[in-house]
Design a protein that fits this description.
Elements: H1 17-38, H2 42-84, E1 91-95, E2 100-103, H3 105-110, H4 119-123, H5 130-144, E3 146-152, E4 156-164, E5 169-178, H6 180-184, E6 193-196, E7 202-205, H7 207-213, E8 234-239, E9 242-252, E10 258-263, E11 283-287, E12 293-296, H8 298-304, E13 318-319, H9 325-333, E14 340-346, E15 353-364, E16 367-376, H10 378-423, H11 432-453, E17 463-466, H12 468-483, E18 487-492, E19 500-503, H13 504-522, E20 526-537, E21 541-543, E22 546-548, E23 551-560, H14 567-570, H15 590-600, E24 604-610, E25 614-622, E26 647-651, H16 655-667, E27 671-675, H17 678-684, E28 694-698, H18 706-713, E29 721-726, H19 734-739, E30 743-747, H20 752-763
Parallel strand pairs: 18-20, 26-27, 26-28, 28-29, 29-30
Antiparallel strand pairs: 1-2, 1-5, 3-4, 4-5, 6-7, 6-10, 8-9, 9-10, 11-12, 11-16, 13-14, 14-15, 15-16, 17-19, 20-23, 21-22, 23-25, 24-25
Helix pairs in contact: 1-2, 10-11, 10-12, 10-16, 12-13, 13-15, 17-18
Length: 764
Amino acid sequence: MTDTTQPVKFAAADDGSGGGRNLALMTIAGLSAMLAFVLHDPVAQLAATAAAVTLGATALGFALRERWRRLGLDRRVRVLAELLGEDAAPCFMTDASGQILWANGSAASRFETAETGSLAATLTPHFAAPGAVLFRLQNRAALSGAAREDVVTRIGHTRLTVNRVGDGRFLWRLEEFQDRSASRNGDAVGLPMLTANKAGVVLFANEAMRRLLGGRPKRLDRIFTTQVLHSGEIVQVATSDGPVRALLAEIEGVGERREIYLLPVPDADAAPDGPGFDDLPVSLMTFAADGTLIEANAAARAMIGPLGEAGVPFHQMFEGLGRPVSEWLADVAAERIQGGAETMRLRRQEREIFVQVTLRRMADRGRGVVMAVLHDMTALKSMEAQFAQSQKMQAIGQLAGGVAHDFNNLLTAISGHCDLLLLRHDREHPDFADLEQIHQNANRAAALVNQLLAFSRKQTLTPQQLDLEEVLSDQAYMLKRLVGEKMRLELIPGSGLGPIRADRRQLEQVVMNLVLNARDAMQREGTITVETEAVSLAEPLRRDRAIVPAGEWAVIRVKDRGHGIPQPQIEKIFEPFFTTKKAGEGTGLGLSMAYGIVKQSGGYIFVDSEVGQGTVFHLWFPIVKAAEPVAAPAPRRKTGNRQGEGVVLLVEDEAPVRAFAARALRMRGYTVLEAETAEAALDQLKDPALQVDLFVTDVVMPGLDGPTWVAEARKARPDVKVVFVSGYAEDVQSETQARLPNSVFLPKPFSLSQLTETVQAQLG
């Protein structure tokens, strides 16, 4: 032991770099001096002599500076020894390799090898794996000057502090905090007891535990056959006489220690205190880790019927998660997930029942079980199904309107030009039959489009493996029609997306609901973005009240730049019947349905929103490896060829339709002025000398639509009559016609005779 009266057992050892440098300088200086003697040139002799003197002086300066540094370091060490020699806490001085150079009196009395060997070897009996702790602290001290860490020991915990002193020297100080309960009371307790750290290393075992195990244990995995220990459950203990069952009780110790006690196994026949399990008014069931039913109370048996017998597997009772339900229960039993609630379908033959099942792992009479709480959700599911059907009908109607617009433009041009050809061919002409066939098929196609406007039926929904890029690509056309022509839908596919398992139509329903909400939030104009991304989570993602497990995920984001959602409302948007829309505009079930569909597919849905900036919905999905014939309508009857008079301004953005309509009206004697856009039509009407009797205009066009530009033109020409034409459904024009008197609607596709008859009727 070294005290403060004895010389400090430390020397600032030279690392060799200073001495080697000085030796090299002196050698070169000597060679330069020898050259000065042997050279005959006076200039060369002078240069060699100057070099020898300079190098010698430099070497002498380096030697003096190194000596001064070593003397200063020795003085600092002596001061530290005087200050810490009588410190009650053990203190050590080590070099960069961890070898002990000095120890104070407390360290020498506390540790047997305090004056020799390495600090790691000295502290090995004190706590587990000291080498790693010392290496980590020394590296931190070398960078920042000091470091500190609390470590768990056999009798408590120790605060280990290190300071850098000089080059490659470190001062260590140990403050020990003894836990009297483990060292003094452990052997006083008659029950087997041990203390372990977070890594599973046994730090202390009392006499009862050592007798039971036949020696001092080292690790928990050598004592218990179960890797994960739960307080209150029965475990198997590997003793010297073979496996023994015991009830495990664990309490939290000091410094992240685990204090584990073994209690006798309780009598299985002992009646529990309080109300009986069978008498509780809530539907409760307990399952083993393998998914078999252990017990169901009276309320649960009344709900599930004959399936509530002990031993029935979980997957034979419930279905509808989009993945095996037994995997969900196994994840809860193994604590891979915390549990949670899922809505599933009960396998009963007499009627369809939906239940919300909440799972939670717990201990029951010394064994680990999974508790299931059941709530009847049949009424809500019925309303959701009805709403899904009605919303699907509405979406199909909107889609049909968009598809009909494009098809009707094409059919108008086809049938119209066919009419023009028929006017130049009589029935005896060899091409007349072909032209008539074209005309009839164009009419039949128009009838099919009209059928599409009213098409809807309930589909059977089943989960399947899906390619997200393919699903969204196929849905893009429909979504663009849903948002309208004045809004832009941007689809940004991600790379490296793997397949997911979901119901295609349900997934499309979710995306459609989110896009429609974005459209309503942005009102008349803007861009809605739908993008996908492959995300790999190395650790579980904690967000809101959910935990997304680590793994590979496919993420869909639906972004808008609308008015945003206030923060108090974000927590309620997924609740059924919660809506911020006006009465008659929404039921509040759209987002709750989206939430349920995503959750049933094993995914998660989150929302980010800022008032005035917009909203982003995030959909997380785990990555996993015929219409009835319609009869053709009767061909339309041709009308007579009556000549007309007047000036018609024809405004149509589709060139083929405009060309046919202009030729048809000119053939009937009208003067036709053509315009491709509403703006071009208004420019022509700026000429006050221009006389116009009738406007024939498309309703939906780029820029100004038909009703808007007609209202503007009528400010100067209030008596001009109007014929609106459109490929959309007729009933959507009722409000437009009510606002603009002396106007009629002509749906596409129209024939030559229908167009001329409508114009003649308006000009009357």
